[in-house]
Amino acid sequence: MMANRRKVLKRAITMLSTAWLAPRFALADISPSVSALDKSELIYLTPIVSGGKESACHGEVWFVHHNQEIFVVTKDDAWRAEATRKGFNKAKIWIGEFGPWKKANNHYLSAPYLQIEGQLETDPAVHASVLEVYGAKYSDEWSSWGPRFKDGLADGSRVMLRYKVAS
């Protein structure tokens, strides 16, 4: 893919805004997987189900890394939301861009990964704050997707998932 000035500028603004919004801590405290979050447009996510096994459901999703947590907005009836509601709060994410997971030929499985624990986030103030970070990160697409996320969170057709790195 040929880089143009607009794409380079967008990437620089995203990286700077993410760095500015992120909490301050020493680089020595950041694992390679966590630091990769701030450089990636996508994560590949799967819930961990009974017996600690990965679910058969995998998918690439937009996300934001904000205040040392990972936020995902998804449709209310998506398997990610259903798994969380059913008590499957643990998940695994791979960090990087490999295209749609079905076409990625499992290449994402060699990417940096994290074990995470999630919950549904229902606080409208958190929604608003996180959506601002989404807007900065995905600025080219946000005029179309921003209203979908905001309206969907308001009417319940979308939910926000909030993940912490598992200890």
Short description:
This protein has helices spanning 5-21, 32-37, 79-85, 124-137, 139-155; strands at 42-47, 59-62, 64-66, 69-75, 90-95, 113-121, 158-165.
What does this structure look like?
Strand 3 (64-66) and strand 4 form a beta hairpin. This protein is 37% helix and 26% strand. The protein has a single domain, classed as Electron Transport, Fmn-binding Protein, Chain A (Pnp Oxidase, Chain A), CATH 2.30.110. The longest helix is centred in the first third of the chain and has 17 residues, at 5-21. The chain has 167 residues and is α+β, with helices and mostly antiparallel strands. It contains five helices and seven strands, in the order ααββββαββααβ. Strands 2-1-5-6-7-4-3 form a seven-stranded antiparallel β-sheet, sandwiched between helices. The radius of gyration is 16 Å and the shape is globular. The protein has helices spanning 5-21, 32-37, 79-85, 124-137, 139-155; strands at 42-47, 59-62, 64-66, 69-75, 90-95, 113-121, 158-165. The termini are far apart. Helix 4 runs antiparallel to helix 5. Residues 12-30 have low confidence and may be disordered.
